[in-house]
């Protein structure tokens, strides 16, 4: 796993967690995102540069448990199929790396192991548009 990134001053990396997606037959009160929200909030408590918030839907119901990491002027990363009982620390580590990286970009090899799979999307920020479309170096 890469060295832990230091959070930078400025807008935080925002971790948004879907609290409603769940497998068929699972009650809303048992949605894995509710456990993920509690675990990520606990792991991020007291850290600068990381904000955690719930959302009622990220539109990826078949990929429960779903989390996005975003921020002003930063890439948006969207992950699904996370384990709420095992992946909270990885989500916080990724958010801290996004907070410290130029444009919030974290290369695949620099992501926590748990977030190297399950990525649904990586969307560049509006201000990032090099001619070749490449990611920040």
Task: Give the gist of this structure.
With 137 residues, the chain is an alpha+beta fold.
CATH fold group: Glutaredoxin
Mean pLDDT: 89
Helical run tally: 2
Return the structural class: alpha+beta
Architecture overview:
The chain is an alpha+beta fold. The chain has a single domain (13-123), classed as Glutaredoxin. The chain is 19% helix and 18% strand. The protein contains two helices and five strands. The protein has helices at residues 32-44, 88-100, and strands at residues 13-18, 50-55, 67-70, 76-79, 119-123. The chain has a five-stranded mixed beta sheet with strand order 2-1-3-4-5, covered by helices on one side. The longest helix is centred in the N-terminal third of the chain and has 13 residues, at 32-44.
Descriptors:
19% helix; 137 residues; 2 helices; 5-stranded mixed sheet; disordered N terminus; 5 strands; alpha+beta; Glutaredoxin
Helix and strand arrangement:
Elements (H helix, E strand, L loop, with lengths): L12 E6 L13 H13 L5 E6 L11 E4 L5 E4 L8 H13 L18 E5 L14
Parallel strand pairs: 1-2
Antiparallel strand pairs: 1-3, 3-4, 4-5
Helix pairs in contact: 1-2
């Amino acid at each position: 796993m890469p060295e832990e990134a230091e959070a930078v001053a400025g807008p935080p990396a925002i971790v948004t967690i879907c609290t409603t997606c769940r497998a068929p037959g699972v009650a809303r009160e048992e949605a894995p995102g509710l456990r993920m929200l509690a675990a990520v909030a606990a792991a991020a408590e007291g850290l600068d540069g990381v904000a955690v918030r719930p959302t009622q839907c990220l539109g990826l119901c078949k990929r429960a448990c779903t989390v996005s990491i975003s921020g002003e002027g930063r890439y948006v990363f969207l992950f699904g199929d996370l384990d709420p009982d095992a992946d909270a620390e990885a989500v916080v580590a990724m958010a801290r790396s996004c907070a410290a990286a130029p444009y919030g970009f974290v290369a695949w090899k620099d992501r926590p192991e748990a977030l190297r799979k399950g990525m649904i999307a990586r969307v560049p920020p509006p201000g990032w548009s090099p001619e070749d479309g490449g990611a920040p170096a």
